[in-house]
Amino acid sequence: MERRAPAVPVQKDQDILAAAARLAGEDLCSIADLTSGEVRAIVKLGHDVKLNPREYRHALDAKQMVLMFEKASLRTRLAFETGINTMGGNAIFVDQTSSPLGEREALADVARNVERWVDVIVLRTYAHDTITEMAANSRVPVINALSDFEHPCQALADFMTLEEHFGSSAGLNFTYVGDGNNVCHSLMLTGAQLGANVTVATPRGYSPDIEIVTKAREIAEANGCEIKLTQDPQAAAENAEAIYTDVCVSMGMEHESTKRAPIFRPFQVNEALMSKAAPNGVFMHCLPARRNAEVTDAVLDGPQSIVFDQAENRMHAQKALLLLLLGGLANVEKFSGQ
């Protein structure tokens, strides 16, 4: 399968320069916090960071990042830690699994302490309100590394990966099959920001949040693309250039496993469903995958699967995000002095 990253002279890119000026010191709670230009900037900068890592190796010298995670993580934690380490900064991991945020002391007080020691807070939590409350009480940027409502870092890496394969997100037919969850929400918003046509196929009762759908459709209309909802995975997969799924039982919802299994069985991504995709169609998953549940081994390990490219690009997209929120481009030679 041919793969190509866009050849963009990023040092003169107006989206990146505008994003660097506006986003320094800001939070990222939701993709909806960003303009279309800022989403494009993060993705384009992610490509450049990936292609030219040595140019960014001192961009975040002496910057301190804390990761406060209430949920288990492999990709998010390692991608952030290795990302900032390779740009001169330092990562501190604070395990919240045994003492969830807000129980030992008020969340606002946690924010007012932590901001005195670090330059950025990366938060992975259950309730989205925890993200927004931390952001409201912190003077340093807060990044949503997953909440029950959104997973913006995942979506940025996913569309960066699509651009590697297709050259551009604009006009792509992107299909999400499964639970209308946090990952689905961020994919809808990001796809709309980048001009992709997004179709979401979910079982009845598991549709994405109506506020997200409304917001994504507003953005899509402005960018000349569409957001569609359906309960028919077969129709949704027709001629799709990307078919994406996630687990149907997210962390914290294990008590619903028995109930959900038969409901989501018709939404499994298998060889029959992938056969309906476009000839150059790819399969995507945010991982971890439950093999032979929401996706079969044949698809996950097959030639159309790009799931490990997605995983790798978590680091590059998150490096781009950190560079913009922490003002790191001022330390990169090709951006300095502009």
UniProtKB/TrEMBL annotation:
Keywords: Cytoplasm, Transferase. SUPFAM superfamilies: Aspartate/ornithine carbamoyltransferase. InterPro entries: Asp/Orn_carbamoyltranf_P-bd, Asp/Orn_carbamoylTrfase, Asp/Orn_carbamoylTrfase_sf, Asp_carbamoyltransf_Asp/Orn-bd, Orn/put_carbamltrans, OTCase_ArgI. It is found in: Cytoplasm. Pfam families: OTCace, OTCace_N. L-ornithine binds at residues 182, 246, 250-251. Its EC number is 2.1.3.3. It catalyses: carbamoyl phosphate + L-ornithine = L-citrulline + phosphate + H(+). GO terms for biological process: citrulline biosynthetic process; L-arginine biosynthetic process via ornithine. GO terms for cellular component: cytoplasm. Pathway: Amino-acid biosynthesis; L-arginine biosynthesis; L-arginine from L-ornithine and carbamoyl phosphate: step 1/3. It is an enzyme of class 2 (transferase). Residues 171-324 form the Aspartate/ornithine carbamoyltransferase Asp/Orn-binding domain. This is Ornithine carbamoyltransferase. The gene is argF.
